[in-house]
Write a structure and sequence with these properties.
This protein has one domain. The chain contains four helices and nine strands.
């Protein structure tokens, strides 16, 4: 019984670089002798995650382990509106990505767009209150009537 999807968002303080957020088990199909089960674990149209921030630092192993062990997928860098994996933080130490949206595979079809707002007035202006850029996720609610 499924009670609903999962969507997480926030500053995870993890720079993942270009490391994968899931384990590609397709190469293990012959070894594990369960090829169909492995092929069904990933959506057919799953895009490789892109990230302009190619550096890994602070909590990236723990964050990616969270994704891999729970089946959560990073939406940054693979969703229309942010295919290139835009930087989400502009600090005096440079540009990086550490703000993410995550969801489960069954919810990917409802994700329509992710935008990282690059307008300077939000993050790099001297009067800005944060060095993080706003992220906007557009999703559709696919309502299913209750079974009677």
């Amino acid at each position: 019984m499924s009670l609903g999807g999962v969507l997480l968002a926030g500053d995870f303080n993890a720079r993942t670089g270009t490391n994968s957020d899931f384990i590609d088990c397709s190469q293990l199909a012959d070894v594990l002798l369960v090829p169909q089960a492995i092929e069904d674990t990933l959506p057919n149209d799953m895009l490789e995650c892109q990230n302009r921030d190619t550096i890994t630092a602070s909590w990236h192993c723990e964050f990616l382990d969270l994704c891999r062990t729970t089946g959560l997928f990073i939406l940054n860098g693979r969703t229309p509106g942010d295919i290139s994996g835009e930087y989400t933080c502009l600090s005096n130490k440079g540009f990086n990505t550490m703000d993410y949206f995550l969801t489960t595979a069954d919810q990917l079809k409802g994700v329509k767009r992710l935008e990282v707002n690059c307008d300077e007035k939000y993050s790099s202006h001297k009067d800005a209150h944060s060095d993080h850029r706003p992220l906007v996720l557009t999703i559709t609610q696919q309502w299913q009537p209750p079974l009677v």
